[in-house]
Structures are given as C-alpha cells and as structure tokens.
Design the sequence.
C-alpha cells in the first residue's frame, strides 16, 4: 500500500546523496591531487517476490574517478606529478601506510622528505645533515645538495599501484587506504616495473570539472523535486483513501 | 448502485497501481540502464443488462429484452517494460560500457544469470570484471572475464585488449521483448538462450534511464485526478445509499 511513498523516498535519498557528493567535489576544485566522486543511481538484480517490487532506486554507487587531473608547474623542486594511476606511500603517525596522489613533497625542519600535510614517506627519505637543497628527477631519484656544495644521492621515490584503485578508501587529506576491494599494493620505482616516469617540478591539480559538477547538480535538484512531487501525490492518495467513509 | 460502488473502487485500485509504476519510474529517472514500465489501462468488459423476466412473445424462443449496457470499471491488464534506448552519456571512464543492441550477461556467485543494459563495470580485488554489486560479467566463453592490471581498451566488437594482447571478449545477447522478465530495476531474467550480438559496444559511455521526468510527472498528475474523481464518485454513491437506507422508509418526517 505504501510502495509509492517508498519508491519516492528512495529517489529523494539518492538525489540527496548525489547533491552532497557534488558539493564535496565542488569544494575540492582547487585541492591538489583530489579525485572526484561520481554518484550513480543503479539497479540491483533481484529474484523471487522482490523481482517485481517497485521500490525505486536500489543503490547509489559512489565511484572515485581516478582519472588524472591537469598538471601545472610547482615551485617546489621536490614536487612531482604522477603520470599513471600510481600512488606515493606515506607513513601515518600510527605506523600504518596510506597512499596519496598529492606529491607536492617538501622537507621539514629535521630534513625528512614529507607530504604537504607533514607525513613521512614510506620508506622514509632523510636528507643528510646540513643539506641546503634537494631535487627529484624523472626516475624518482632524490639528490641533496650538501653543505659543501656537492650533490649526494639520498634515495629513490617508491610508487604503489593497486589492481582496483577505485576500491581504495578515502581517509581525507588526499590520503587513501587499501581495502579488500582495491587489492594489495604493488610497489615499484618510477620508470621501471611498468610504472611511468614521474614529472618533476610539476603538481597534479584536482580532476573536478566545475561545469560538469554544476550540470549534475541541476539534474539532481530537478530529479529531487520530481520525487518530492510523487511523494506528495502518494500521500494525498492515502489521505483520500482514509476519507472514503467520511 | 452497488455496481457503481464497485466500478469506482476498481478505478481507484487501478490508479493506485499505476501510480506505483510512475513513482518507480520517477525515482529511477537517473538510474543507469533503467527501463521504464508503462501500464496499459483497459476497461473491464461491459456487461449486457437484460430484463430479468422474459418478454411474453408469440415466438417459440423466449428472447430476453436487452435494455442497455453498463460498465464495470477499469483495471490494468499488465505492466509492460518499455525497452526503448535511454540517452547516452559520455563519461570517458575505462570500464563504462554502453550497448547499441542487446544486453550484458552477468552472473551471481550462485550461478544465476541476469541481463542488463547497465554497463557501469569495475574490477574486483582479483581483477575480475564485475558490476557494482560484485556480479561477474561474462565473456563469450560463458566464463567471468579477468583483466590484467593497467588500462584496457574495449573494441566495438566487444574484444577487450590490454595493449595488443586480447584478454577477453564480452558476451552480448539479444532477446525478443516477451522473453524477458524484470528482476529488479534495470536487470532482467530470460526464458530463452538469446541470440549473440557482435558489435555496438562503446567504451567510455553509459546508457541512462529512458524515463523522462516531464512525461512521468504529467501522467502522475493526470492519474492523481482520476483517483480523486473516483473517490468523489464513491463518496457520493455512499451518501446516496445512506439516504436510501436511512430516509426512504421513514414515516411522517
């Protein structure tokens, strides 16, 4: 009897989720290395009685779109852009490993190579004491300029890739954690083992396209209004049915 | 009089079931690969009303005199799926696929097969090509497709390649509309085995819902008014019956 309301409510719920997701994408239009999320209404195969049920939207799929963002020049000599679907492993304060695309690396006061949020790389790279500068090349080799002016090779950037990068869990701050759905990280070095060379001195911007997000926002808003209308009509019909004997 | 009550009731019932379909269509107006349902409203057969007493006539056969027809209301014969194609959207995503003709074949872990036009696929942790609920997308050999890490390209004939190496071929089947039965939104089960379709696979596109908000909402409002009208008829008949029962037979006012 209340399936009209249930179907309409499922549509309202989906469009609300879509609008929330779009708002988050728009808010991150200038976040380095941000990967937009695509909300998608989908059906779900059903058997038995549910096969014919009219219950509206079955599920909302939130796909993290891992397509690369536009690349721009960065001022930082340790910054680089990743040109394939790989990630940079970083060590979180609790000892676990997370992965990021925002490779705007810099050095902290102790000479550690860190991410913009101050997380250490995994494995960590430390510049020798008294180093005056450092840079990275396309193969990921980090070279420091020592106090005496000579260049010293410090180490190499490690990259990680996943069988299913869309399955990564977002931790915020541009960090991702592996999940059962993403598979385990495969480690390698830039320019080897199937990993593309990196672009030193560049930074990857957000892959959010503002025009597309705003178009999707309009569609979601209109669809929301339509489901609200269907809900109201269903409610009115139920009210009329209860007034039959009045 | 009672017949009128019943006519009004069946009409309300029909309107209600129609609204269920429309609400479902509206809710799924943005659902990938959704096929809307249309309801065919159809009047119940009219009954011939005959005079109960046979007409005295000098005929060997006694003919019942027909005095007219009366409708018995409305019912919905059945709901049909509208299989027309929905608009396509270019997404540029590697595993978003759209079909010109036919259906993708997906299989649940228990071996049940479903058919869908929803081509939003992905990889699971072991590299299988799966739907968002983890059902395997079947290849032309009837087995799940396993993708290597890295980008794959899907040719128009459904061949999946990683670089130049062929890693699989999508199974696409087409059915006559009557063979398919709904199995949840945008999924179907089929009676027959289907005919294989080669070609018409497009990578980087999704087929959206074929429900149009304008049309569904217009029908929703029209059916709503029909429901209200039937409800008014029912209430009026109820009032008349009440007067017949309560006032006719009363003496002296």
Sequence:
């Amino acid at each position: 009897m209340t399936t009209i309301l249930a179907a309409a409510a499922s549509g309202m719920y989906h469009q609300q989720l879509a609008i929330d997701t779009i708002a988050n994408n728009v808010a991150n239009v200038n976040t380095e290395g941000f990967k937009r999320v695509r909300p998608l209404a989908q059906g779900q195969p059903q058997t038995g009685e549910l096969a014919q049920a009219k219950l509206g939207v079955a599920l909302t799929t939130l796909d993290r779109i891992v397509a690369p963002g536009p690349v721009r020049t960065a001022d930082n000599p340790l910054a680089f852009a990743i040109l394939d679907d790989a990630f940079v492993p970083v060590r979180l304060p609790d000892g676990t490993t997370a992965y990021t695309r925002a490779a705007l690396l810099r050095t902290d006061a102790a000479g550690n190579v860190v991410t913009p949020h101050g997380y250490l790389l995994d494995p960590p790279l430390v510049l020798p004491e008294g180093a005056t500068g450092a840079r990275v090349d396309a193969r990921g080799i980090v070279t420091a300029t020592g106090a005496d002016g000579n260049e010293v090779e410090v180490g190499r950037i490690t990259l990680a890739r996943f069988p299913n990068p869309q399955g990564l869990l977002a931790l915020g701050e541009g960090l991702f954690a592996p999940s059962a759905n993403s598979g385990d990280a495969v480690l390698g070095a830039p320019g080897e083992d199937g990993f593309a060379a990196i672009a030193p001195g560049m930074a990857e911007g957000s892959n959010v396209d503002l025009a597309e997000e705003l178009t999707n926002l309009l569609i979601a808003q209109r669809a929301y209004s339509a489901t609200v209308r269907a809900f109201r009509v269903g409610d009115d019909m139920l009210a009329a049915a209860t007034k039959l004997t009045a | 009089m009672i017949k009128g009550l019943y006519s009004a009731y069946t009409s309300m019932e029909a309107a209600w079931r129609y609204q269920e379909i429309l609400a479902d269509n509206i809710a799924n107006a943005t659902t990938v690969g959704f096929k809307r349902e249309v309801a065919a409203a159809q009047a119940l057969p009219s009954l011939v009303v005959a005079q109960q007493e046979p007409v005295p006539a000098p005929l060997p056969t006694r003919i019942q005199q027909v005095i007219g027809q009366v409708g018995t209301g409305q019912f919905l014969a059945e709901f049909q799926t509208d299989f027309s194609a929905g608009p396509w959207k270019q997404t540029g995503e590697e595993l978003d696929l759209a079909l010109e003709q036919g259906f993708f074949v997906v299989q649940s872990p228990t071996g049940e097969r479903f058919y869908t036009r929803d081509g939003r696929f992905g990889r699971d942790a072991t590299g299988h090509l799966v739907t968002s609920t983890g059902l395997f997308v079947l290849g032309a050999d009837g087995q799940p497709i396993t993708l290597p890490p890295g980008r794959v390209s899907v040719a128009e004939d459904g061949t999946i390649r990683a670089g130049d190496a062929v890693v699989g071929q999508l199974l696409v089947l087409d059915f006559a509309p009557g063979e398919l039965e709904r199995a949840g939104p945008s999924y179907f089960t089929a009676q027959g085995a289907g005919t294989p379709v080669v070609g018409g696979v497009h990578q980087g596109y999704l087929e959206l819902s074929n429900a149009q908000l304008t049309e569904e909402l217009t029908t929703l409002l029209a059916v709503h008014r029909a429901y209200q009208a039937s409800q008014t008829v029912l209430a009026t008949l109820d009032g008349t019956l009440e007067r017949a029962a309560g006032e006719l037979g009363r003496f002296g006012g």
About this structure: Chain B is about 25% helix and 30% strand. Confidence is low (pLDDT under 50) at residues 59-63 of chain B. The first strand of chain B starts at residue 37 and ends at 43. Chain B touches chain A through 61 residues (CB under 8 Å).
